Amino acid sequence: MIEKQNPKWVPQLLAWYDVNKRDLPWRDCGDPYKIWVSEVMSQQTRIEAMKPYYDNWMQLFPTLQDLANATEDEAVHAWQGLGYYSRARNLRLGVQEVVNKYGGIVPSNRKDIESLKGVGSYTAGAILSMAYGKREAAVDGNVLRIYARLYGVYDDILSTKGKKAITELVEATLPHDRPGDFNQSLMDFGSAVCIPKSPRCSECPIRNMCYAYQNNVTDQLPVRIKKTKVIDVPVWVGILQYGDYYLLHKRPNRGLLRSMWEFPSLEGANSFDEAEQGLAELVRALGFTLSLQPVMAKELTHIFSHRKWFMKAFKGDLDYVQPIPEMSDSIRYIPDDADIITYIQQSLPKDWMLIKRQDFANYAWAGPHGKLTELCKETQCNK
Ligand code: SF4
Fold first, then answer.
1. Does ligand 1 lie within 6 Å of residue 201's CB atom?
2. Percent of the chain residues topping a pLDDT of 70
3. 135 and 238 part of one domain
4. Structural domain includes residue 2
5. Where residue 366 sits, what CATH number does that domain have?
6. Are residues 300 and 354 in the same domain?
7. Which of 82, 240, 285, 323 is surrounded by the most beta carbons within 10 Å?
8. Across residues 49-78, what is the average pLDDT?
9. Per the structure, how many domains does the chain have?
C-alpha cells in the first residue's frame, strides 16, 4: 500500500498537470459562479461537448444575477442538447438562493454551499477548492476510479462503503498548498491518462506508485456492481399535422423530461393497430380525428438512466371535428385560416399546442423528440 500522508505521487501529478492541463475558460478565474456552472454542465457530459454550451450560457447569463433573473424556460432552453434538464432548473434555483439568502455571494463553507439546490458534495468540493482555495475533496467517478487503482481499493465504488473509503483517502492526500489545482489535475488525468477502459499506463507519470499497475490488475479495478435495471419501453410517436401546424404536448411538470415539448406519444402499445387506436383516442379528446400513415417514418432508441425508449414515429393528418362557433361562411371551411387556428389553440388544454415548423426552435424539446423534428420539413409537410 502506498503512503496516505504526503504521498510522492501528488507533487508528480501536479507537475504533470502544470504541463498538460486543459485550457478551459473557467479555470484560474476564481469565480465561483463560473466554476459552479462548469461543474454542473460537465456532469454526464464530456468537457469537449459541453464547452460550446458553457460559452453560450455565459453569453446569456454572464453573472449569477442574470441567471437568477431568468425564467425557468429560458434556462432550460439554453440547456437544450445537454440532457438531464433538472440540472438547469436546479442551477437556477440554487443561484436564486444565493441572491436571496447570501446577498449574491456563493457561500465559502461546505455546510451552506451543500444546502443550495442541486449542489452535491462533488460540486461543493470543486467550488470551494477552485474558487476559494479550500482544502476540500471533490470526489466523482473519475476520482473513484483513479484512487481505486492507485491504492488497490476492491470495494464496489458505487457502494456507500467504497465511496466512503475513497473519500477518506482523498481527504488524507489533498495537498495543503494547491487543493484546487489538485482536484483539477485529477479531472484532467482521469480523462487523458487513467481513463475508464484501457488506462494509458505507459504514459502515466505515477505508475511506479500505482497498485493496479504494479500488480497487473488495471483491468480489474475499479470494481463496479451495477444494480440499476434499465426497463425497455416501446414509445409510439405521431408526427401529426393540421394544415401547416404540428400538434405538440408538454410533458407533466414531474418525472422524466418534465415540462418539455414532445410529439403526441403512447407508451407500451404492442402493435401499429394498438398505437393508432391509442393516438386516435388521445387526439379525439382534443377535438381531432386522426388519419395515421402505416409506414414508419423513423425509428430511434434513447437510453435514460432507468429506461430505454424504443421509439417508432409515424406521420399523420388531423381534422378538427368540433363545431367552430361564430364564424362567417367565408372562412369556415378554410382549414389553415388564422382565425380557426386561434380558436382551436384557445380550445386546447394548456399542455397542448399547434405550432408551425419554423417556430420549433423557440421551445425546449423533450430529448429524442428534438431529433424527430427533422421529419417536419416545410416543403414535405405543407398540406
Ligand atoms: S498506472 Fe495506469 S492505472 Fe495506475 S494511475 Fe496510472 S494510468 Fe491509472
1. yes
2. 93
3. no
4. no
5. 3.90.79.10
6. yes
7. 240
8. 95
9. 2
User: Domain check: are 89 and 49 in the same one?
Assistant: yes
Handedness of CA 49, 53, 55, 56 (dihedral sign): positive
- pLDDT at res. 195: 96
Is 150 near ligand 1, meaning CB less than 6 Å away? yes
Q: Is residue 68 part of a domain?
A: yes
**In a 3-state reduction of DSSP, which class is residue 291?**
strand
Which residue lies with its CA nearest to atom 1 of ligand 1? Answer: 207
Mean pLDDT value across residues 310-317: 96
- What is the rounded distance in angstroms from the CA atom of residue 104 to the CA atom of residue 30? 15
| DSSP-based three-state secondary structure for 315 | strand
- Is residue 200's pLDDT more than 80? yes
Give the pLDDT mean for 328-357.
Answer: 77
Residue nearest atom 8 of ligand 1, based on CA coordinates: 194
H helix or E strand, kind and range, residue 296: strand 288-303
Whether residues 128 and 26 share a domain: the answer is yes
CB 85 within 8 A of CB 260: yes
CA 139 to centroid of ligand 1, rounded, Å: 17
Residues 201 and 270 in one domain: no
Catalytic residue flag (residue 3): no
Q: What is the bridge-based pairing of β-strands 307-320 and 231-242?
A: parallel
Contact 194, 227 (CB under 8 A): no
- Assigned domain for 224 exists: no
Atom of ligand 1 nearest to the CA of 189: 7
In a domain, 3, yes or no: no
What pairs with residue 298 in β-bridges?
Answer: 313
Q: Which of 186, 218, 220, 221 to mutate to test the pocket of ligand 1 (most atoms within 8 A of CB)?
A: 218
Q: What is the Cα–Cα distance from 322 to 331, expressed in whole angstroms?
A: 15
User: Which residue among 214, 247, 275 closes a domain?
Assistant: 214
327 pLDDT exceeds 60? no
pLDDT the model gives residue 226 = 76
| Ligand 1 and 348: CB distance under 6 A | no
Residue, of 31 and 269, whose pLDDT is higher: 31
Confidence of residue 181 (pLDDT cuts 50, 70, 90): very high
Nearest atom in ligand 1 to 203's CA:
7
Q: Taking residues 152-179, what's their average pLDDT?
A: 94
Cα distance from N-terminal residue to C-terminal residue, the chain:
72
Q: Does the C-beta of 199 come closer than 6 Å to ligand 1?
A: yes
Range of the domain at 267: 231-381
Quote the ligand 1 centre to 335 CA distance (angstroms): 66
* In a shared domain, residues 191 and 264: no
Catalytic pick among 3, 39, 114, 281: 39
Pick from 81-90, 107-116, 332-341 the range whose average pLDDT is largest: 107-116
Res 6: pLDDT? 66
